[in-house]
Design goal:
With 177 residues, the chain is mainly α. It has four helices and three strands; from the N terminus they run H-E-E-H-H-E-H. The chain has a single domain, classed as de novo design (two linked rop proteins).
């Protein structure tokens, strides 16, 4: 039969017994948990590139339905021609904006492009195409709309959105590096 003798732990000066402290709640959590919290939101990497791509894609798609050309006739009638009615280039600008929105929605859903095709490159390509198509319409007015020789605000909104799409792609590319 073996006898077990309980020994007192040796008092080591480095390893003193300690008591577990009570959990301390953060200062902003004390109070009502449903109340709005104030403070700065931490910016995640790629935040600006993502948001700018969403906004630029939406504005680019909507701007195809704004007035690209406007003018007044001699009898005082004011005419406006939307980007959709300017021909194939106006429709292509709309579909580029729509493709950008679809690309961003698929990325948010967890479906990503293959690694050989980075999203930043696709956004830069979409923005470049939209910029070229819009600049063609800024510089050359179709003959059927020559009576409305003034450019409307919508074509410049399209141009700004197309350039913003290029910037969104560049911001995404900077994030990937």
């Amino acid at each position: 039969m073996t006898l077990l003798i309980a020994r007192r732990p040796v008092n080591l000066p480095i390893l003193r017994p300690v008591q577990t402290p009570e959990p301390m709640l953060p200062p902003d959590y004390q109070g009502d948990p449903l109340s709005p919290r104030h403070g700065s939101r931490s910016v995640t990497p790629g935040y600006w590139g993502e948001r700018l791509a969403w906004i630029a894609g939406l504005v680019l798609a909507v701007s195809a339905f704004t007035d690209w050309y406007a003018g007044s006739q001699a009898d005082g009638l004011t005419l406006a021609v939307t980007g959709w009615h300017t021909g194939a280039l106006g429709k292509l600008v709309f579909f580029i904006g729509l493709a950008t929105l679809i690309l961003e929605a698929l990325r948010e859903a967890g479906i990503e492009l293959p690694a050989t095709v980075p999203e930043s490159l696709v956004l830069i390509a979409f923005g470049s195409l939209a910029t070229i198509f819009t600049l063609i319409r800024v510089l050359s007015i179709p003959d059927t709309f020559f009576d409305t020789a003034n450019r409307g605000i919508g074509i410049f909104i399209s141009l700004i959105a197309a350039v913003a799409l290029i910037i969104a792609g560049l911001l995404r590319a900077a994030e990937e590096l």
